[in-house]
Structure formats: structure tokens, C-alpha cells
Amino acid sequence: MTQNDALIDIRLALTGLSLDFVRQGNAMGFSTIRDIVATEPAALIAMEGFSYPWLAELVQHLRLCGRLELLQRLGPANEERQEQ
User: Fold this and answer.
1) Which residue, 12, 63, 70, 76, is most buried by CB atoms nearer than 10 A?
2) Please, which residues have CB within 8 angstroms of residue 12's CB and are 6 or more apart in sequence?
3) Which pLDDT tens digit goes with each residue over 68-80?
4) DSSP 8-state secondary structure symbol assigned to residue 48
């Protein structure tokens, strides 16, 4: 496990994210950033408790940690490019 992997596997309460972010994430059933980024975007947005300010805080945190790519999903076009 790399140091960056450790950053996304620690409990939300230990990430340095706001208490509101942690509470909202826990209420949606998330305990780590890995749990969040493993959720399909449409499912995440549809969850009770989701808000765009909450997502913005996650984006800012991942950017500062150098892990913003975790929010990118491979689509069919990207998969085809990788196979070439």
C-alpha cells in the first residue's frame, strides 16, 4: 500500500475534512474516501444527504492531496483509447 492509498483508506474523521463533511459522509454510509470514490457518480448524487458543497469539499481535499484523478471514471471512449 502506498502513502497515497493510506490517505484514502483512513477514516473520514482523521482526514482533516470538516466535521460537517464527516457527519454528512457517515450519514450516507461512508467511512473512508475510498468508499466515496468507489460509488458510481449517479448513485452518489442520488443519495439522501448528498450536496454539491459536500462534493466540492471532497474535490478540494483530493486536489490538495494530489489524488483528484480518483474522481475520474473510465468511459467507453477512454477504455478504447487505452486498448490501442
Assistant:
1) 12
2) 21, 22, 25, 26, 30, 31, 32, 33
3) 898 886 444 444 4
4) T
